C-alpha cells in the first residue's frame, strides 16, 4: 500500500509562497513581509487568532499570480 504524505494547509501555502521567490529576485521575501505585516495588524486589532492566521496566509499568497506571470510574459 502506498502511503500518501500528509501536508498541512499552512505548509502547502508556505511552499507556494517560497516558490514565488524563484520567479524574480526583485520580489524575494516581499510576500513574507506582507504576511507578517498583515499578522501584526490583525494582532493590533485584537482579532481572534484564527483570523490573524488567515491574514498571515493571505499575505503569504497575495502574489501567487507571479508564478505564472513569467510564463505569460515570455509568450508575448
Task: Describe the model.
The chain has 76 residues and is mainly α. The protein is 64% helix and 0% strand. The protein is built from 4 helices and no strands. The protein is flat. The N and C termini lie far apart (46 Å).
Helicity level: 55-70%
CA radius of gyration is 15 Å
Give the topology string: H per helix, E per strand. HHHH
Structural class: mainly alpha
State the low-pLDDT regions, or none.
Answer: none
Task: Give me the count of strands.
Answer: 0
Overall geometry? flat
The N- and C-terminal alpha carbons lie at a distance of 46 Å
Task: Give a quick account of the main beta sheet: strands, pairing sense, barrel closure.
Answer: none
Task: Report the total helices.
Answer: 4
Q: Give average pLDDT, whole number.
A: 84
- DSSP strand content: under 5%
